[in-house]
Structure formats: structure tokens, C-alpha cells
Design brief:
This protein is α+β, with helices and mostly antiparallel strands. Helix content is 34%, strand content 27%. The protein is globular, with a radius of gyration of 15 Å.
Length: 168
Amino acid sequence: MRNAWTVTPEPYDSPVAAALWRAYYTEVSDRWYLLHEGRRTDPAELERGIAAERGVQLAPPTGQLLVARYEGEPAGTAGVRLVAGDPAGTAELTRVFVREELRGKGGAALLVGAAEDAARALGAVRVRLDTRSDLTEARALYARLGYAETEPFNDDVYAEHWFVKKLP
């Protein structure tokens, strides 16, 4: 149901944003550790990771965090930030997440579209992102939405695939 979704800007440090960040980080961290070490994330390590990346780079005027709501309830996020020092107008897409029980209902594509609109409003002409091999759903989503794999643009230890899309 498309009209069940709304996507709006949200302060990166709001309680809603913090709860969705915790859900996102817990899922991607647990997936990595289960795949590579056969265990979930150590709780202390999880708390350190959540605390270390609050999302200040997703604050205006150079970034934006978006929250999707499904039937009024917080359901997912997407963020964009301008790439510092890039005169060509590149934004980076990050924190694309939809709660597991709401996946397959169109929210992720709406979030990415809204993030692309926000990137344009920030002055970007292209969007880039990185992701991991085990996040197969994300890679399929990005390909479906017109993102093309590209050469690595960072040396993030968790980045295994890099994508770019020119904004129309």
C-alpha cells in the first residue's frame, strides 16, 4: 500500500532516529559476525559502535536524514551527505534501512528516491554508496533503482561493492 508510507526529514539525533540507527546497526553488525565468526555482536562492542557513529554528518546544511513511517510508525531511514572536498557535486547515500517486518512493501525504494531528492536539494549531481557482499537485498535494490557498480572510492574495511548514479 503506497499511501501507507510517508518519508520526512528527521534530526539525526532525535529519539526516532536513534532507535532506527540502533536497529540498523544491530542488524548489519550481527549479520557480519554471524557470517564471519558464527556469533552475534558482543553487546559492549555493539554499544561502542552505536555511540561512535551518531550521524552528525547527516545534518543540514551538508546532509539530511530521512525517516520513513508506515501507517504512522517509524519504519526506516536513509541519509545523504555531501562528500567533503568534492567540487563535482557528489553525495553519499547511507543508512538505508527498513525494519524487517515491513520489507517488500516499497519503503526502501521510496526512501532512496527521497534521499536522491534531498541530495539534489543539497546541490549534488550524483550519488554514491558502498555496501557489503552479504547485503544482497541492498545490492539488488540499488541495481533496480539505476545504480551501477563502480571502482572503489574508499578503503572501508566493510565495503565490498561500490555504486554510483547520476541524478537526472
